[in-house]
Specification:
The complex is a heterodimer of chains A (about 230) and B (about 80). By secondary structure, chain A is α/β, with parallel strands linked by helices. Chain A has a single domain, classed as Class I glutamine amidotransferase (GATase) domain (Rossmann fold), CATH 3.40.50.880. Chain A is about 25% helix and about 25% strand. Chain A is globular and about 45 Å long. Chain B has about 80 residues and is α+β, with helices and mostly antiparallel strands. Helices cover about 35% and strands about 30% of the residues of chain B. Classes of the chains: A alpha/beta (about 230), B alpha+beta (about 80).
């Protein structure tokens, strides 16, 4: 059986696509490069939207990327159930595209923060987090200036009530409401988080360890299960 | 030919740490009597034709889709001149 194919999207200004592709390969999957100007998702089983500064973060982080030709394909596919993970800038793009509720704004302290961050996995009930257990504590790097999660009171209440919080900060670094580091859509196939699991997949490259690997092994397993059950 | 101004501001309930930082800097520069600052964006849209209702409706659509993220921001449209 062939390995799951995970599309990794590159926009002008994306930084973490190489690390993301490497993490997919490291976990046993096949990364498929997707270019922002492509109009074809190349039949991938899942899509990873990596971090960086797509389109220079002009206007607002993710505001321009949302209208990229590839996104015109990705948005309906995600609504139809394609698993999509956005980290950092990818999370911002998913919020701008209204695939996820709320928005990400400037950190409360105004500082760009780059550090290893303790987190708690709140939901293992997504194709991206199935290899974790709810309540598990992990350490994964963060690096962002605009990662403060905000939403109006009604949206925030709904996100909590539906169990859509996927990852929470232990020691809130940026003023995010309810310590939210990552959320999912109602269906669960679209997940966004500010931390960078792709930077924590092997001991060799330093960093805090391999706590991020679970995002990649989870999606490979769930893609294979889909193939088997198809 | 007309110019339309779109102003985009964070919604009042959204914390604006940039505005707060500016407000904190002002007293140090000798400006007193400022109780708060909020920072926003101003777009100057040059139209090919007049700013009639159809054109303004288009500008509002631009604001809604791109210039503002209405999840966190409000916008106001006005014709200059």
């Amino acid at each position: 059986m062939s390995a799951a194919r995970v599309g990794v999207v590159t926009f002008p200004g994306t930084l973490d696509d190489q690390d993301a592709a490497r993490a997919v390969r490291h976990a046993g999957g096949e990364p498929v490069p997707l270019w922002h100007a492509d109009t074809d998702l190349k039949g991938v089983d899942a899509v990873f939207l990596p971090g960086g500064f797509s389109y220079g973060d002009y206007l607002r982080c993710g505001a321009i990327s949302r209208f990229a030709p590839l996104m015109e394909q990705l948005i309906p596919a995600a609504r139809a159930g394609l698993p999509v993970l956005g980290t950092c800038n990818g999370f911002q793009i998913l919020c701008e595209a209204h695939l996820l509720p709320g928005a990400l704004v400037k950190n409360a302290g105004l500082h760009y923060i780059c550090r290893d961050q303790r987190l708690r996995i709140e939901s293992a009930d997504t194709p991206w987090t199935a290899d974790y257990t709810a309540g598990q504590e992990v350490v994964i790097p963060i690096k962002h200036g605009e990662g403060r999660y905000v939403a109006d009171a009604a949206t925030l209440a709904a996100v909590e009530a539906n169990g859509q919080v996927v990852v929470r900060y232990l020691g809130n670094p940026n003023g995010s409401l309810n310590d939210i580091a990552g959320i999912r859509n109602e269906a669960g196939n679209v997940v966004g988080l500010m931390p960078h699991p792709e930077h924590a997949v092997e001991e060799l490259t330093g960093g805090p360890g391999t706590d991020g690997l679970g995002f990649f092994t989870s999606i490979l397993k769930s893609s294979l299960e889909k193939l088997v059950n198809a | 030919m007309a110019r339309v101004i779109v102003e985009v501001m964070l919604k009042p309930e959204i914390l604006d740490p940039q505005g707060q930082a500016i407000a904190r800097a002002l007293p140090r520069l000798g400006f007193s009597g400022v109780s708060a600052v909020r920072q926003g964006k101003r777009f100057e849209i040059e139209l090919d034709g007049p700013a009639d209702e159809a054109a303004l409706s288009d500008v509002r659509k631009m604001a809604e889709t791109l210039l503002a993220n209405t999840v966190i921001e409000d916008y106001a449209v006005r014709v200059e001149g």
